[in-house]
What does this fold into?
Amino acid sequence: MVTVDQVIGSLKKVVDPELHKDIVSMGMIKDLAINEGKVAFTLELTTPACPFNSDIERDVRNAMAGLGVKDLMLKVTARVMEGRALNLDELLPGVKNIVAVASGKGGVGKTTVSVNLALALAKTGAKVGLLDADIYGPSVPLMLGLKASPEVVNNKIQPPEVSGVKVISMGFFYEQSQQAGIYRGPIVSGIVKQFLTDVNWGDLDYLIIDLPPGTGDAPLTIAQTIPITGILIVTTPQDVAMNVAVKAVGMFNKLNVPIIGVIENMSYLACPHCDEQIYLFGKGGGRKISEDFKIPFIGEIPLHQGISAGSDSGKPTVLSDPQSLHAISFDKAAKTVAGRISIIAAELKAMEEAEKKQEQDTKPAA
Ligand SMILES: Nc1ncnc2c1ncn2[C@@H]1O[C@H](COP(=O)(O)OP(=O)(O)O)[C@@H](O)[C@H]1O
Ligand SMILES: [Mg+2]
It folds into this structure.
C-alpha cells in the first residue's frame, strides 16, 4: 500500500509549467489522506484561469497511476495568489491583485481590452472588479451598457455588477453632476485612490484598472502610487509603426512596477467571410517590442467589427459572441495574463520569504 512519503515524493515530480516549481513546494497539495489504499487530496491551483490547469491535473493523475493508486479522490480548486506590495494591505485587504491597463495614446482599444479581459476572467470563475480610471473619457459604462447611480451603504459606494464583474466609473457620477472636469495627475490619482478606498469591492482575485490613456502625469502617478501587481500595455501595429509603443513601453518599464506584458490590439483584419487574417500594418510588431524589452507577449486581438459592435451596443463580444474567434482571443489573453500574475505573485512570495529568513538569521541569539 502506498505511503504518504511515496505520494508526496511522486507529486514533487509534477512541475507547474509556468512557475517552474514542483506543486508540493508551491503548497498546492492540501488535505492529503490515505486510507486503506485510497488516496484523497486537494490540488489547489494558483488561478482558475491558468492555461495549464488541465495539464497539471493530468500529470497529477498520471503520477498517482504510476504509484499504482487505483482509488484516487482528487479535488481540484483554485486560490489566486496575492501579488501586490504587501505593505499597502490596509488600503484594500480583500483584493489580491491589481492590474493596470495602459497605452501609449488614446484610441488603441485600451478600454475594449480592459472590459473584455475582465469579463473573460470572470467567466473562468475568478472574482473580478473593473475600475475605470479614465476620468476624462470614462467609456466603461457605455461599453457594458451600464447606467447606474451607485448606492452608498455604510459610507461605502456599492459597485454595480455586470456578469460577475463589479464596476466603478466616474461616468456614474458625471451623470449626476453633469460635468466632466479637466484634472491634473495628482487629482486624478486622488480620485482613483478614493475609488479604491471608498468602494465596497469585497473579495476580489483581480481588479482591472483602465488607466487614463498615454504616458502623461495621470497614468504614471496612478501606476506609482497604487499598489498594483503589474502593468498590461495595449499597443496596435500602427502604434508600433509610429514609435508610440516603444516610448510607452520604455516609460512604464522605468517605473518600479512589474510589467505583465504587451497585448497587441487590432493586430490583423479578420475577414468576415473566411478565416483569413490580413495584417494591414505589418505582422509581429507587438511581439518584437516585447522581445526588445524582454517582457512577455500576451497575444494578438484581431480588428473585427464584432468587437466594436459589441462595445457600441453595451454587450462586449466575450458575452455576446463567446464562440467567435475574436472572443476566444480575449479568453486566451485573459488566461495568459492570469498565468503571468501567478508568476509575479510567486516571485513576490519567494522574495518575502527570503527577506524573512534573512531577518531571522541576522537576529542576535537571545
Ligand atoms: N479589436 C478591435 N476591433 C474593432 N474595433 C475595435 C477593436 N478595439 C477597439 N475597437 C474600437 O476602437 C474604438 C476605440 O477603442 P477604445 O477601447 O475606446 O480605445 P481607448 O480606450 O484606447 O481609447 C472603439 O470604437 C472600439 O469599439
Ligand atoms: Mg478608453
Q: What stands out?
A: The domain at 4-78 is CATH 3.30.300.130 (GMP Synthetase; Chain A, domain 3).
